[in-house]
Hints:
Elements: H1 4-11, E1 24-29, E2 36-44, E3 47-56, H2 59-72, H3 77-82, H4 85-91, H5 101-120
Antiparallel strand pairs: 1-2, 2-3
Helix pairs in contact: 1-2, 2-5
Amino acid sequence: MYSPQVLDHFEHPRNAGSIADADASVQIENPACGDVLKLTLKIFGDRIEQIRFLAKGCVCSMACGSALTELIQGKTIQQAREFDREQLVSAVGGLAPTSMHASHLAMDALAAALNRLADKS
């Protein structure tokens, strides 16, 4: 059973798509389940001006990708680095233990994107 927040993000994803001229673009795959999450970010100053996601996988992976973009957009890069998995899980109303991999996928993608930005500077 999914929380109302998971279902809402799955049925009405926020920030879906990709940014053509992104400052960072990453694609992460969970080898255990095959879910894939792509994040693209556009930075202005030290803020994440835009963040978009594309997901292929389970309901929770799509919901976590959507919620992550909603929570991270407008934050500074430092604030994004301080964002943690528990905050994401809370924002989607909790996840069953068998769906927790979705939050790990989203957070791994965010970390990879932030590292990509750091490598460019």
